[in-house]
TrEMBL record:
InterPro entries: Cyt_P450, Cyt_P450_E_grp-IV, Cyt_P450_sf. The lineage of its organism: Eukaryota, Viridiplantae, Streptophyta, Embryophyta, Tracheophyta. Its cofactor is heme. It holds the Pfam family p450. It comes from Setaria italica (Foxtail millet). The gene is LOC101777323. Gene3D superfamilies: Cytochrome P450. It comes from the Eukaryota. Involved in the biosynthesis of jasmonic acid, a growth regulator that is implicated also as a signaling molecule in plant defense. Converts 13-hydroperoxylinolenic acid to 12,13-epoxylinolenic acid. This is hydroperoxide dehydratase.
Length: 503
């Protein structure tokens, strides 16, 4: 294990002269089609990258990345795949890569999905508008600090009430289970509207009931051409992966949300104009993108991973009792006045095992697995003990799930080790945790492309774990359903901490 060696240091320790990047794109059309079928049909995404890395004996190699539309759509699927921790860092270097219009790869769903605005995530750091919009996103997050935790707790409470009721209603079933996806998405949507936009969706019945479904459809139309869904082949290839999906299908829903933000989030929109010089239309479209794509999309993917992993029936490492103990200790501390409060941002940073578990989940299953960037110039890409010549204009495609299982960096890389990030050695590994499009040890800034909510995302996930163990002595999850909820038995030494006002 090389926990304290930075990727740059390990890569440059023995730098051989650059060699050509191995791998081939295959014959025109046929090569891209073969790779597309492997990616979506014959292999999983993971297997796709693993097999090619093995076949090329290299963690940097050439391949086509789907979708591969007919030539007249004009998308070039040729990329340089990067699947080790050292070379991956090139994707965070603004002097090397241009991030213009390349969020989900060579395919860009287009501004038709965002009310005609090229929103911040599609802007490169060299475009002046990026700095303006990123600063606005970070400021909105900063402003939300006073409401974020309480809005989240309220959402989680409502979600768990609904799941409990569902499970109780099915108590006589042979194997009772309550699916949590809809209540979770409802919780995420409502809390984000309150925290980010400053608007309570309950003022608008349609937005409150169907807002999250509108976002699901909106997200699906943008990203499905790049995703394996699992419907019967070749239908999936023909219907979903062969052409860009049209944005007009979701315009009525999108504009319903647009009007909601315009009317009820007027303060945030005015703030964008007054403090950041962003006009009304661009402010609303950017707010909706941050809320719907970055935040709602990110949490909707990540929180189920986390809940399912912690709730695994087998619990081979006895993780649940250990997490419960840590959460209960934090509760006790708060109840006896030794701490600030529980389940706010402060407490989220004072539960080391909970936090390490969240980091390990982000390492094993990063919610945004692929990162892209176009070479600004010819440069040498350094990997462990190898160097490759990249030409200006080539697209780098980093696959995080392999880069963050790099055996040169992580011990037992394929294993879920909840305590991996504990202690000094564990903290040193955080430089190799890349889920936020940057090392966990770096900070998002107007001049980089790292997730604006890097800290808040980890804190929020910690709060969810804490909230589960505040309420339950134990629980079990199978896939996307709770199968067991054991309510917390009151302890004679512990009174309920005052959650109100906890931030
Ligand atoms: C689990 C939740 C989240 C995940 C996994 C996530 C992940 C990411 C990733 C990977 C990027 C970089 C995309 C790229 O350029 O390749 C990104 C960018 C961004 N994220 Fe997040 N994010 C999450 C939640 C949030 C939240 C809650 C917010 C704000 C409220 C947010 C705001 C942003 C913004 C503004 C950017 C663009 C940064 C830039 O253009 O410089 N994200 N996020």
């Amino acid at each position: 294990m090389l926990p304290t060696l930075s990727p740059a240091a390990s890569a440059s320790a023995a730098t051989p002269p650059p060699r050509p990047i191995p791998g081939s794109y295959g014959p025109p059309v046929i090569g891209a089609l073969r790779d597309r079928l492997d990616y979506f049909w014959f292999q999983s995404q993971d297997e796709f990258f693993r097999r090619r890395a093995a076949a090329n004996r290299s963690t940097v190699f050439r391949t086509n990345i789907p979708p591969t539309f007919p030539f007249f759509v004009g998308i070039d699927p040729r990329v340089v795949a990067v699947v080790d921790a050292a070379a991956f860092t090139a994707l965070f270097d603004n002097t090397l890569v241009d991030k213009r219009d390349i969020l989900i790869g060579p395919y860009n769903p287009g501004a038709g999905f965002t009310g005609g605005t090229r929103v911040g995530v599609y802007l490169d750091t060299e475009e002046p508008e990026h700095e303006r919009v990123k600063k606005f996103a970070m400021a909105i997050l900063h402003r939300s600090a006073t409401t974020w935790a309480s809005a989240f707790r309220a959402g989680v409470d409502a979600m768990l009430d609904s799941i409990e009721a569902d499970l109780a209603a099915k108590a006589s079933d042979e194997k009772p289970s309550a699916n949590y996806i809809v209540p979770l998405q409802q919780c995420i949507f409502r809390f984000l509207c309150k925290a980010l936009v400053g608007a309570d969706p309950s003022v608008d019945w349609v937005v409150d009931k169907f807002g999250f479904t509108i976002l699901d459809v909106w997200l699906a139309l943008q990203i499905l051409p790049t995703q394996k869904i699992g419907i019967i082949q070749p239908l999936e290839e023909l219907l979903i992966h062969s052409f860009p999906l049209p944005s007009f299908l979701i315009w009525p829903g999108y504009y319903r949300l647009y009007r909601f933000v315009e009317e009820h989030g007027a303060a945030a929109v005015a703030y964008a104009a007054e403090e950041h010089g962003i006009g009304k239309k661009d402010a609303i479209n950017n707010l909706l993108f941050v809320l719907g794509f970055n935040a709602f999309g990110g949490f909707s993917v990540f929180l189920p991973f986390l809940v399912a992993k912690i709730g695994e029936a087998a619990d081979p490492t006895g993780l649940r009792p250990r997490l419960r103990e840590e959460v209960r200790a934090a509760m006790l501390k708060a109840a006896t006045g030794g701490g600030d409060t529980v389940f706010g941002f402060k407490a989220a940073r004072e539960m080391p095992l909970v936090r390490s578990t969240v980091y390990e989940m982000l390492r094993m299953q990063p919610p945004v697995p692929l990162q892209f960037g176009r070479a600004r110039k010819d440069f040498v890409l350094r990997s462990h003990g190898a160097a490759f010549q990249v030409a200006k204009g080539e697209v780098l495609c980093g696959y995080q799930p392999l880069a963050m299982r790099d055996p040169e960096v992580f011990d037992r890389p394929e294993e879920f080790v909840p305590e991996r990030f504990l202690g000094d050695e564990g903290q040193a590994l955080l430089q190799h945790l890349f889920w936020s499009n940057g090392p966990e040890t770096s900070q998002p800034a107007a001049g980089n492309k790292q997730c604006a909510a890097k800290e808040v995302v980890v804190d929020t996930a910690c709060m969810l774990v804490a909230e589960l163990f505040r309420r339950y002595d134990d629980f079990q999850v199978e896939g996307t359903s709770f199968t067991k909820l054991v309510k917390r038995q009151p302890s004679p030494t512990m009174s309920e901490p005052a959650a109100a006002g906890a931030q």
